[in-house]
Amino acid sequence: xxxxxxxxxxxxxxxxxxxxxxxxxxxxxxxxxxxxxxxxxxxxxxxxxxxxxxxxxxxxxxxxxxxxxxxxxxxxxxxxxxxxxxxxxxxxxxxxxxxxxxxxxxxxxxxxxxx
Amino acid sequence: xxxxxxxxxxxxxxxxxxxxxxxxxxxxxxxxxxxxxxxxxxxxxxxxxxxxxxxxxxxxxxxxxxxxxxxxxxxxxxxxxxxxxxxxxxxxxxxxxxxxxxxxxxxxxxxxxxxxxxxxxxxxxxxxxxxxxxxxxxxxxxxxxxxxxxxxxxxxxxxxxxxxxxxxxxxxxxxxxxxxxxxxxxxxxxxxxxxxxxxxxxxxxxxxxxxxxxxxxxxxxxxxxxxxxxxxxxxxxxxxxxxxxxxxxxxxxxxxxxxxxxxxxxxxxxxxxxxxxxxxxxxxxxxxxxxxxxxxxxxxxxxxxxxxxxxxxxxxxxxxxxxxxxxxxxxxxxxxxxxxxxxxxxxxxxxxxxxxxxxxxxxxxxxxxxxxxxxxxxxxxxxxxxxxxxxxxxxxxxxxxxxxxxxxxxxxxxxxxxxxxxxxxxxxxxxxxxxxxxxxxxxxxxxxxxxxxxxxxxxxxxxxxxxxxxxxxxxxxxxxxxxxxxxxxxxxxxxxxxxxxxxxxxxxxxxxxxxxxxxxxxxxxxxxxxxxxxxxxxxxxxxxxxxxxxxxxxxxxxxxx
Lengths: 115, 561
Known about the structure:
heterodimer; A: about 120 residues; alpha/beta; five-stranded mixed beta sheet; B: about 550 residues; alpha+beta; five-stranded antiparallel beta sheet; 19 strands
């Protein structure tokens, strides 16, 4: 078991702000996740892609944080996409209906093509 | 002249009950052993007469003594006149007690001189005779102890199996050598009517007779308990509870008990602090059969983790006591586990493994080895052609899950025995992040079971969420309050029970509505129970006697069987 604090690196590609998340999305991830989203939004983009490719663990508290990001994005009228989720977490995004508000793609390439 | 010889016993351990003893015939009687003994004379160790006689020069007139002495009064009552102390090397070893002269005359100075000379010569001779008798008694005592030890050894050998069980497709070998005449190691085979074989190996702290007595008791309790109980973990828990009240201080017993089903090669076991068995696989790999638990006899109410390993053709299990790995060579180096593993890997498996390891031990310790501890080794070799364990069916969604390590490590769960299961319990302190440990441990335990990779992922999430609720809300993150996790793997289902002490408020049960959350009508949180319900096939929550338990059930899909 490795507990890994979340880090969020932001870059833009094709007008989309990509937030590369790495680590655990749990209660400890709040400030990193929020800062990542805000940094992405500050680029003036209309679309933010959350890349979960390097995320190994997401729990219910992490889901709540993602809901918080989605709520903030809704106020900002920013579109949020997700990619890099494992089969298991893709299922969780589906049962929680996060995927209804945040289209899910396999990887960044597919997401950018879809956006 | 009549004499009574009074022996004064030496001041040694046995003579604490020192007393004078007349062993000569009464006055005027012929000296014959068959005659009634002269009146006994008790001289207490603190009687002032002894000190007086010790330092007296020659015969002492009783009438001239004026101090207060019970022995003296007794002597006067018996009509004694003269006491001649027998002193050798400064030690009073006996008395010559004389009554009145037969001629009724007083003892002359010549008489006294003669008696003094006699005493001077008799004293060393009497002392020599006393020493000889003491040595004879000691020799008899030594002989008796040796004889009793030999009897103890015979009894102990009776407690060990006289032969190894013969089971088609399996070879069992055993070796036992105590460091002293008797020892505290033991092993046992319990053959069940359904063909299963119980294997016991144990080690009592300490050596010699005390250890042997505890060993005999433990062996009997294990045997009786095992025949009434199918679960190795429950057997050790019961044996522990029986032993604790009567266990001598500072003694305890390590013991491993396992049940082999020779038909399918499953080995279900529990361990009370004993060295782990090693399994030599046909490719030379050496695995451990790991289960943890406290040694027997220390604390009541212990629970023992139960685990199951799978054996197939070419596998050899080696059970041993610490006398093997803790043996030293002439330079003080220890045999050790790494060497044991390495040697097991080098040798071929099978029934000969025991002899080869003993050969290694002999070569390591050298010919002059003074065996430090009891050495016990039992090997179990499989040559049976068993049905291969069924690997879990991979599903497309599970493509990124780790592959099972090898088919050998998958627990065999025979469908015809619906009651067979593997149970593991553990406790964790309630602290932030603790749910990760719970989740990872459960994941390790179910690895190799029938769970699909997909189900294992769902289980991990469900266990993490339920544990987090238990730690955060149930126990309010109080580090001193444990969360107990029990995992039972059945042929058709897996059940995980997570229990907290229910002191705090449980998590919000309101059904989360994402729309409402995004619009701020609901808090963003409250996903825990929702997630758990969606990850498992069944969730049951019970609260009783201050305990709050969430039971998670995952079912085996029909087409996976």
